[in-house]
């Protein structure tokens, strides 16, 4: 026989599907009715932007895009803004991935950025898509020995030795900068450990927010020249590059969901302490 | 995205989201489809982007030494033959040894020496910066002491390690804050995709809701599930 | 033979990878480069092994005619279909069926699986995150300050031009000082553990991966 529950108990043990519905509203409403709020740019992202901006025009960078569709909302906006910043400085790009699902995303980002159509970049001359390679840290160490040995052909099947852009580039230290866009492992941590700390190549990175706090030690130690974490980091970077995109557009929904979560934590604890006072806590 | 792509991707998204109501056949179907498609995708890429260029084409170019990798790779499948399954340990031992050797250098240079070096900061000059640096050094030292389990943590050691726990809790709280941001970003991304065509999403949402209602009633009438 | 050869393989592979950092000699570099290529290929074969395991498991379910057989048929069918398309057909290009399936099926499923976590973290925040102890209060306080500092609405409530830099400034300080201290300690502690474990594996003191005890 169940006793009638008080309003406090009903609120404390509410069916979680109501909570899901409230969150859904908190996300949908700001996406429909956008409330633009000023965006503060953090030092980590400012440093990332400045590091790329300081690269000589026409230099060549190595980009390792290591994410999959689950990392797209946080990393694709950054990736797109990155291509814009690099292309505006006429910086050449050699791109590959250590995540299997990343290459189609990279191709889509390049198409959306208009790398060939708007910026006039030529395949294999101004940019190279090498594709995906298995092996994680082994691949990183192999690339340090020889990029062309690790990628004997590019994504289209052209032998690496015949690619014009790769004539003078074969190891990490040949490039002006290593840029990693990463959703996990292998990613920023492995690149810092196996590549940056051993070769000293300048490196910047973007990561999903969940890994952001873990990579702050690398940024503070100077192993990373800059770091953009999550959709907020991508939004800050979009602002600096001057290309407002999906990340900036998602900030009001992000704000609403954060405020909701804080309200839930506070409310849940208020219910808990009320229950303790009335002697009914779990 | 063409119309068929839109309908299929929206339907699959809603099938996964139906799990929020309750575990159901639509979710299970989508989940198994995801596992199957992922596995097939990874196999195809392993062949096209690693095995074919780095092994098959290399051997075709006359690099016969590379066949050693093929032999090790094939040995992995001996685990399906009980009499010679012990041979499957050879490629595993090779890869584990490689990763162990790589990690010794990687962790030593990236996570130990350089991190220690960058902790040598000025704790005297610089006003608030020096205070922050002092807090950093104290936090690092006490947190490291917390991880020292060779001596019972009581007395002075206990007090110091408790301070370390406080710093670790703050760092876990910061991680939680960022984790919330990350998860919300994923939900925002999917919601935006669903809002590309509200009509498609509306129709499919209705279809999923009807299915869940009918299925739920069948479950209750046959006495299955809660 | 059953134990000696695997141990030797582990030792040689591991020792060469460590030596690679210290020895710049060309012959040594050529040997380690070739071994690294072997490593890439063997790891790629593990995907094939994984597929074979999955196939074996679900094929048994289908043969048994269990209640979950339909799901297993979907899994095996989609796995073989996708693999066949990618291996025997074009595996790149917007027009290829392989990439079409990637964009239509893999992309939304992968993204939505992880999007579910947002809802579960919300439920956990309401029902489970309780400030029961000093440590929990510290954790939740830091979490709330970081969440507020991260989003524009936090900056609007207490801005970066205010005292202490507002919520964004406070968040930056938390990340740069106490968070850095804790995370750096974890990094260094884990590094010590990884180095000692790596050396133990190479010397054969750890043999779990070889199927035996220490």
Account of the protein in words:
The complex is a heterotrimer of chains A (282), B (226) and C (214). With 282 residues, chain A is an alpha/beta fold. Chain A is built from twelve helices and six strands. Chain A has helices at residues 7-12, 16-32, 43-53, 72-88, 102-113, 137-145, 147-150, 188-199, 212-220, 230-241, 246-249, 251-277, and strands spanning 60-66, 92-97, 127-132, 177-182, 203-207, 227-229. Chain A has a six-stranded parallel sheet with strand order 3-2-1-4-5-6, with helices on both faces. Chain A is elongated. By secondary structure, chain B is mainly α. Chain B has seven helices and no strands. Chain B has helices spanning 3-17, 25-60, 67-75, 89-118, 128-146, 156-194, 198-222. Chain B is extended and about 65 Å long. By secondary structure, chain C is mainly α. Chain C has helices at residues 4-22, 26-64, 69-88, 97-127, 134-150, 152-157, 166-176, 178-203. In chain C, α1 (4-22) packs across α8 (178-203) and α7 (166-176) packs parallel to α8 (178-203). Chains B and C meet through α1, α2, α3, α4 and α5 of B and α1, α2, α3, α4 and α5 of C.
């Amino acid at each position: 026989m169940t006793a009638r529950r008080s309003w406090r108990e009903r609120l404390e043990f509410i069916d979680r599907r109501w909570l899901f519905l409230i969150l859904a509203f908190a996300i949908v409403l700001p996406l429909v009715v956008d409330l633009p709020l000023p965006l503060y740019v953090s030092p980590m992202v400012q440093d990332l932007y400045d590091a790329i901006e300081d690269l000589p025009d026409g230099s060549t960078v190595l980009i390792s895009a290591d994410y999959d569709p689950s990392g797209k909302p946080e990393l694709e906006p950054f990736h797109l803004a990155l291509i814009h910043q690099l292309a505006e400085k006429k910086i050449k790009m050699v791109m590959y991935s250590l995540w299997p699902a990343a290459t189609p995303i990279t191709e889509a980002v390049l198409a959306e950025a208009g790398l060939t159509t708007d910026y006039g970049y030529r395949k294999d001359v101004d940019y190279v898509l090498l594709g995906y390679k298995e092996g994680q840290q082994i691949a990183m160490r192999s690339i340090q020995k020889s990029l062309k040995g690790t990628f004997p052909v590019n994504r289209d099947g052209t032998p690496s030795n015949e690619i014009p852009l790769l004539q003078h580039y074969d190891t990490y230290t040949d490039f002006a900068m290593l840029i990693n866009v990463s959703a996990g492992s292998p990613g920023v941590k492995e690149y810092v450990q196996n590549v940056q700390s051993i070769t000293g190549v300048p490196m910047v990175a973007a990561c999903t927010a969940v890994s952001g706090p873990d990579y702050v030690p690398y940024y503070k130690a100077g192993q990373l020249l800059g770091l953009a974490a999550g959709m907020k980091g991508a939004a800050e970077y979009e602002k600096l590059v001057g290309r407002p995109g999906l990340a900036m557009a998602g900030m009001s929904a992000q704000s609403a969901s954060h405020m909701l979560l804080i309200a839930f934590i506070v409310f849940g604890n208020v219910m808990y302490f009320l229950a303790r006072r009335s002697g009914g806590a779990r | 995205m063409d119309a068929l792509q839109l309908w299929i991707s929206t339907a699959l998204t809603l099938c996964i989201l139906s799990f929020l109501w309750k575990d159901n056949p639509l979710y299970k179907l989508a989940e198994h489809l995801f596992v199957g498609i992922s596995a097939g995708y990874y196999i195809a890429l392993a062949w096209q982007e690693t095995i074919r260029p780095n092994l098959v084409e290399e051997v075709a170019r006359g690099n016969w030494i590379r066949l050693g990798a093929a032999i090790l790779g094939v040995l992995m499948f001996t685990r399906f033959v009980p009499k010679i399954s012990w041979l499957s340990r050879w490629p595993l031992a090779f890869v584990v040894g490689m990763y162990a050797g790589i990690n010794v250098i990687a962790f030593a240079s990236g996570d130990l020496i350089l991190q220690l070096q960058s902790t040598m900061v000025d704790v005297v000059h610089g006003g608030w910066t020096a205070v922050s640096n002092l807090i950093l050094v104290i936090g690092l030292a006490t947190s490291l002491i917390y991880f020292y389990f060779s001596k019972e943590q009581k007395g002075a050691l206990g007090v110091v390690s408790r301070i370390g726990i406080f710093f670790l809790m703050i760092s876990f709280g910061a991680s939680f804050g960022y984790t919330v941001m990350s998860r919300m970003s994923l939900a925002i991304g999917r919601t935006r995709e669903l809002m590309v065509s509200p009509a498609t999403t509306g129709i499919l949402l209705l279809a999923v809701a009807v299915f869940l209602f009918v299925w739920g009633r069948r479950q209750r009438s046959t006495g299955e599930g809660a | 033979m059953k134990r000696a050869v695997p141990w030797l393989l582990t030792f040689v592979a591991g020792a060469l990878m460590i030596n690679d950092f210290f020895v710049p000699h060309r012959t040594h570099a050529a040997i380690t480069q070739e071994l690294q290529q072997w490593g890439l290929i063997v790891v790629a074969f593990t995907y094939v092994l994984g597929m074979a395991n999955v196939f074996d498991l679900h094929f048994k379910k289908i043969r048994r005619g269990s209640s979950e057989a339909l799901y297993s048929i979907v899994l095996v069918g989609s796995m073989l279909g996708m693999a066949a398309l990618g291996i025997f057909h074009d595996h790149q290009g917007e027009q290829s069926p392989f990439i079409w399936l990637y964009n239509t099926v893999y992309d939304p499923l992968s993204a939505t699986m992880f999007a579910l976590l947002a809802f579960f973290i919300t439920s956990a925040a309401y029902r489970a995150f309780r400030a029961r102890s000093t440590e929990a209060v510290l954790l939740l306080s830091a979490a709330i300050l970081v969440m507020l500092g991260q989003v524009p609405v936090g900056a609007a409530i207490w801005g970066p031009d205010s005292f202490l830099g507002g919520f964004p400034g406070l968040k930056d300080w938390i990340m740069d000082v106490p968070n850095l201290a804790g995370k750096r300690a974890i990094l260094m502690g884990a590094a010590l553990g990884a180095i000692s474990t790596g050396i133990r594996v190479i010397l054969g003191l750890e043999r779990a991966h070889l199927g035996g005890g220490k």
